[in-house]
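Sequence decides. Our protein:
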Amino acid sequence: MGCSIQQHKWQKLKMSVRVDMWGRLTKRVLTSIGGVAASISALAATMSAFVALGALIAK
């Protein structure tokens, strides 16, 4: 949610909820190397959480 302007943060949040806006949101987030790195680490953290949850359930 990089921008410091409050309205822009709400716009990005709204884009993440509306399915028809996902392409536009992805394009905005992945325009810089920092956005790509943050996206990859968020994806890795989410996958790790799912694996941990699966291990917890399997116990």
User: Anything to note?
Assistant: The chain has three helices and no strands. The CA atoms of residues 39 and 45 lie 10 Å apart.
